[in-house]
């Protein structure tokens, strides 16, 4: 029995049995190899070939190895499908979306395109005049000496000169004129704008007036003597009207501007054949080109009142240009718009104080309806071929312009004479 216990538990039961035996009974003594072989060594270091127990490694934070663990509950779907565990970390692939139907291409205008086009149009409408502004000649038109004080509204002095250096060779041949820089004038117009309305008053070139420093002469001689400054001073001395801006138009400006518009409409009241003005037209309203419009505005030898009728025709041509400028076709046709600005800037001169805004206001003032008058006048007592301002009616017209008031109808007539 001892042998069987020794074979089963050599280090426990057999050890206790054998140690209870007395020494000298044939049992090996402690410390001998036989004792160690029989009872086992109690040394702390096990032999190299002894089987060793390896502790199981646990993850940090894991429970005790003998702790009861709760198994995950299988999902109902898994239990119902044969106990298969649920899939984790994977999702079923979504069905591909339906392919969109092919649509026919149709042009679409984005909302931002219209504002962009409007911006480009505005830039063009503003840029073209600004560009041509740089090509306009400037002249010192401010006179020296005493002048009337500032007045309400704005007064422009429009002067038509015989400047012809911008005419083409063909135009000079038709007009039978050479290059001239503009030393004479047969058009003197005061254009007033303000709260009292717009008034266009012509001063006949044969009007006798005091020319500062040169005595009494025809008013157009002031332009021949010292150009724009002396003419401005003479007009201010005659009328008491303060001139704010000066605008000079040459032959070429009339011809080229009318042609750029494609012609203007004039309405002569009688047949007009004037070889000196190269004019031959019939009575009635008609569309004419630049050369005909210039001859029409310069003719003075056909009608009874000569120069008085001529100034009325000059205002008619200017008003016709204004009417053409207001048509929508002027602004929607970029070629026409360019040509008009180019023609107007080629033969125009303005005072040095005028800026692009002032010129724009002048262009607007030239358009639309306005009262058109000739300065009230009478034949000069000293020379029936000359004129003088009517002392009874002219002051009323001058005061209305000076005070920016409505012009009396009695003082505003086409020829400056009393209405019949």
Automatic annotation (TrEMBL):
Pfam families linked to this entry: LytR_cpsA_psr
Biased composition (Low complexity): 85-94
Transmembrane region(s): 111-133
Biased composition (Basic and acidic residues): 64-79
Domain of life: Bacteria
Record keywords: Membrane, Transmembrane, Transmembrane helix
Stretches assigned to the Cell envelope-related transcriptional attenuator domain: 184-324
Region (Disordered) location: 1-103
Protein family membership: Belongs to the LytR/CpsA/Psr (LCP) family.
Protein name: Cell envelope-related transcriptional attenuator domain-containing protein
Organism: Nocardioides flavus (ex Wang et al. 2016)
């Amino acid at each position: 029995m001892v042998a069987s216990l020794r074979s089963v538990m050599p280090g426990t039961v057999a050890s206790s049995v054998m140690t209870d035996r007395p020494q000298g009974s044939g049992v090996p003594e402690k410390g001998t190899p036989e004792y160690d072989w029989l009872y086992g060594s109690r040394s702390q270091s096990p032999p190299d070939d002894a089987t060793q127990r390896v502790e199981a490694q646990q993850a940090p934070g894991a429970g005790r190895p003998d702790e009861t663990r709760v198994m995950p509950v299988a999902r109902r779907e898994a239990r119902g499908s044969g106990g298969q565990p649920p899939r984790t970390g994977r999702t079923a692939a979504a069905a591909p979306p339906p392919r969109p139907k092919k649509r026919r291409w149709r042009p679409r205008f984005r909302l931002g395109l219209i504002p962009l086009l409007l911006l480009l149009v505005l830039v063009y409408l503003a840029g073209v005049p600004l560009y041509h502004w740089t090509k306009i000649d400037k002249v010192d038109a401010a006179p020296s000496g005493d002048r009337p004080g500032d007045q309400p509204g704005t007064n422009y002095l429009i002067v038509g000169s015989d400047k012809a250096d911008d005419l083409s060779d063909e135009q000079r041949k038709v007009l039978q004129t050479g290059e001239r820089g503009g030393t004479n004038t047969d058009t003197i117009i005061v254009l007033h704008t303000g709260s009292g309305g717009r008034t266009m008053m012509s001063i006949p070139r044969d009007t006798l007036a005091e020319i500062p420093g040169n005595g009494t002469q025809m008013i157009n001689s002031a332009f021949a003597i010292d150009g724009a400054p002396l003419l401005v001073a003479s007009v201010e001395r005659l009328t008491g009207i303060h001139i704010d801006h000066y605008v000079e138009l040459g032959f070429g400006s009339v011809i080229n501007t009318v042609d750029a518009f494609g012609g203007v409409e004039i309405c002569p009241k009688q047949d007009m054949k004037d070889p000196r003005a190269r004019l031959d037209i019939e009575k009635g309203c008609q569309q004419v080109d630049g050369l005909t419009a210039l001859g029409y505005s310069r003719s003075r030898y056909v009608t009874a009142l000569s120069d008085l009728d001529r100034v009325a025709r000059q205002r008619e041509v200017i008003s016709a240009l204004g009417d053409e400028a207001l048509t929508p076709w002027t602004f929607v046709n970029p070629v026409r718009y360019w040509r008009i600005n180019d023609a107007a800037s080629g033969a125009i001169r303005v005072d040095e104080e005028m800026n692009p805004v002032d010129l724009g206001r002048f262009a607007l003032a030239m358009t639309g309806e306005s009262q058109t008058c000739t300065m009230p006048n009478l034949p000069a007592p000293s020379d029936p071929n000359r004129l003088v301002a009517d002392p009874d009616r002219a002051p009323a017209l001058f005061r209305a312009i000076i005070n920016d008031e409505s012009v009396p109808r009695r003082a505003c007539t086409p020829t400056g004479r009393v209405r019949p």
